[in-house]
Amino acid sequence: MNRHWNKPHFSTSIETIKLLIALTMLFACLLLSSIAQSSTNIDLSDEEKEHLAAKGRVTMCVDPDWMPYERIDEQGKHVGIAADFMSEFQKRIPVPIELVLTENWKESLEAAKSRQCDILSLLNESPQRREFLNFTEPYLTDSVVLVARNDVFYLDGLEALSGRKLGVVDGYVYEEKIRKQYPEIIIIPVKSVGDALRKVSDGKLYATLDALFIITSSIQELGLSNLKIAGQTGLDNAFRVGVRKDDPILLSVFDKLIKNLDDTTRNAILRSWYTLKFQHGTDWRIVWRVTAIAIIILCLLGYITLSTRRFNRKLAKANQAKSQFLANMSHEIRTPMNGIIGMTSLLLDTDLQPEQRDFTETVQTSADGLLAIINDILDFSKIESGKLDLEKLSFNLRHTLEDTSDILALRADQKGLEIICQIDPEVPSLLIGDPGRLRQMIINLGNNAIKFTEQGEISITISLKEDLDSEVMLRFSVKDSGIGISQGLHQSLFNLFTQADYSTTRKYGGSGLGLAISKQLSELMGGNIGVNSTPGHGATFWFTAKFGKQSQINQETKPEAQTSLDLSHCRLLAVDDNATNRSYLKKVATAWGCQNFTEAANGNTALEILRGAAKAGQPFDLAIIDLLMPPGMTGEALGSMIKQDSEIGDTKLIMMTSIGSRGDAARLASKGFAAYLYKPIKETILKKCLEAVVHGRQLEGPEVGSLITRHSLAESYKQEIRILVAEDNIINQKVTKAILEKLGYRVEISANGQEALQSLQSMPFDLIIMDCEMPEMDGYEATRRIRAWKDGEDEELRQKSNLPIIAMTAHAIEGEREKCIEAGMDDFLSKPAKPENLAELIKIWLSRSDVIETKTTDLQPRQE
């Protein structure tokens, strides 16, 4: 029987060219090769021969409408690729393979499940099918593609079908996989491939899918000219023989049949269905036609190659021009923005009338929003050009989260929201990765949570997903109690310039870039991102990321590792109306050895627990109390009642609050509180606080004194530290000097690099903040000259050559940080620099040098 497979009609495209090339190569192989006779012998064991003889026959079910793989023709015969393979198998076994007729594929599956047939001729393996079938090794493979109408531009994988109708033949293994991996797709069962294609053609379905060869032959056979192959699915078919579960000997027989099948016979079967078949030797007319087609193809490929090269050159020039434009615009915008944001921050710290404060806060909010958009656009341009790279730096995860929570806490506090940060104890602190990009993702998700939440809490949680010896995979989640997101919009949220709907942008603002950038970053970090949400019940955005672990030596020598807090003998009571806060306190206290941890949701319950424990002779050592616990008594009132009660008055008290005001510390100290800390609860601060309160230890960090606060050591040493600022812009000089002096540092200003060198030679400094673009001598050259002093003869200059230098520049494009580091600078801060970011960076670099050690030796902590 002569069987022909004709390629379907395609418009001129790259796919057409690839198909013609494949045909050309195949014809060439046919002209050069001869058909070899395959052996029909198969080495069956005695047990297998006896088993087949006892059976007398092998019954087979097939798909009655699945061409070119297989079907039942008008005479009731099994035809197609699978039928030809079964014919070859029939030659090699001594019993007949008999066909069991069914109406459709689903009926064939049911027949196999009920053991009405011994084998299924051609199918994919799946968990559900493994319940009633065993599977041979694959004997045929193919790719699965998507088909849609011609007016659909392109489908970038199955994820592009979110919320749309996809036709899948009832009983196909694809349905099981898609429902599990892509629950947003609306799957519509159909009777057959032809039925699915007709419904797509009529607009009743958005798309369907099946194996490439089935789709192309079916479109050709049905004459559906308004359909096209619209994308790949990422699914691959590995077709096998399915053998009934209770017949392992028959499975062994068919595995041998497949293994025994030689490549010549296999290729001959495939060629008979996928290519033109030569019947009487070589048809030279076809050869010449193929040769002519090959020449045309080569010409087309040459033209396409030249066109592509010209296009790529133009594209490279355009990208270079765009990058230069963005660099210039970034510099020009950020310089005045630095003045606006810096001055408004300073203005808000002065005494203002209510109306003046409202106007100033509006200016600051608008400036922050504009800066966020500028940063997003720059990141977007890097994504477009494929230049969004990650750094590999050693950092402390817990410190990074605490610094990030400070930024989010201010906005949360302004809306009356509580923010909670939790890191599971098994998560390592000392990691290798890009803390800046990690901070950016957490802030993106945190700001979104705050933006869409009017009341309740924001919870940031970090957990260990997988420990990979030298690396860890972490899961970061940000949960809110806000407006929520409908199921159909989950996937599209991570596309560029997308929000839940246009009214969202009007009401809440935003560029729609933050989540798309976070998605790119999480994928660069070896993870992914997603959201779980229902409207009206909040949302949980999560992402995973992979980080390296710092060496064991680092883990053991860091101060955090050397300090051990033992709460094994401490009875601790946590009083907070927020269950998440209580849960977190219990988790960290248990990790530090606390075996007697008790919770109370309000003041009255806390008093009952404390008094009951005291009467039982097991009084509590410590109570951690929230300030605001509506309704009922406040934390302050509860503390006063505890201290006035002689039975429980010895209980040490720590106050936690998310809203603090001037005078709180002095008032709480007078009422007997031992410590006063702000939320979100920072693990490192809490640990140091407990060391002092529970064990009476003198701390090296900022929490010492009669009332322990985060400011206990605050300004005592800062006036001894002198910072040099090299900056040519007068407004930025004023802003930076005012910020630094308000932080408590002594500041000197130089207008360019040359003046900075002269100032360094004449005065002592502890740190340098260096602008990059300055007249006479820029920051790069000034830094190189400072670092060159280490090779000179002047001992004083050699010591100054190691001073920390922080670049503070309006350039914020790809490669700028590397350029600064290459020049010899230690760190990089882009303008406009927020006071809190500048303060944190200065603190980091002063702590890395010996400045703090040498200047705080004899200082006493300031009482608050």
Describe the 3D structure.
- The protein is 45% helix and 19% strand.
- It is an alpha/beta fold.
- The strands form 5 sheets. Strands 1, 5, 6, 7, 8, 9, 10, 11 and 12 form a 9-stranded mixed beta sheet that branches. Strands 13, 14, 15, 16, 17, 18 and 19 form a 7-stranded mixed beta sheet that branches.
- The longest helix is centred in the middle third of the chain and has 65 residues.
- The N terminus and C terminus are likely disordered.
Provide a short characterization of the protein structure.
The protein is of the alpha/beta class. Helix content is 45%, strand content 19%. The strands form five sheets. Strands 1, 5, 6, 7, 8, 9, 10, 11 and 12 form a nine-stranded mixed sheet that branches.
Query: How many distinct helices?
Result: 29
Q: Mean of the pLDDT scores?
A: 78
Q: DSSP strand (E) fraction?
A: 15-25%
Give the strand tally: 29
Report the C-alpha radius of gyration, rounded: 36 Å
Approximate helicity band:
40-55%
Q: What is the overall shape?
A: globular
Structural class by secondary-structure content: alpha/beta
- What profile does the largest beta sheet have? 9 strands, mixed
Cα(first) to Cα(last) distance is 98 Å
| Low-pLDDT runs | 1-14, 16-21, 23-39, 275-283, 497-511, 556-563, 698-705, 713-718, 852-864
